[in-house]
Prior knowledge:
29% of the residues lie in helices and 44% in strands. It is of the alpha+beta class.
Amino acid sequence: ANQSQTSRVNNTGSSNPSSEKNSETASQPPRLASEKIEYLIAQYISAYDTGNLDQMLRLFSANVRTEDGTGIAIIKRDYSNLFLNTAERHITVHNVKNQITGNGQANIRFDASVRVRNSKSSEWKYFSGDMELEVVDSDRGLLISALSHSITQD
């Protein structure tokens, strides 16, 4: 599983690709290196694919904003329902674009392809669309402070 996650994450792009390997300099160490963003996306993919609610919740700030409101309880409710009602799920991330907004914050936008298999059926359902994350650097690493998406069934 780690190998497929790595290949999916390697499709990521940065708003400044030339800084990917040499992103930390002595004069100005960036607070949001592309490696941190790639790691966050890899952790999201892993938590989503395995249905690991605890791992998923650790990726979000306590006051995360979503289309449904504010707070980690909304994330917990939504992902708990998804994980309980699906036997398998798989997300692939494409065309990642990062925009560093300053003060240890960034916007991450990417296309997502999702497939899920309901726990009561052997049939897979396919979805695609785009997701946008606002992230903030914290003492716990990067945390998702806002999540929005436009994912529709194919």
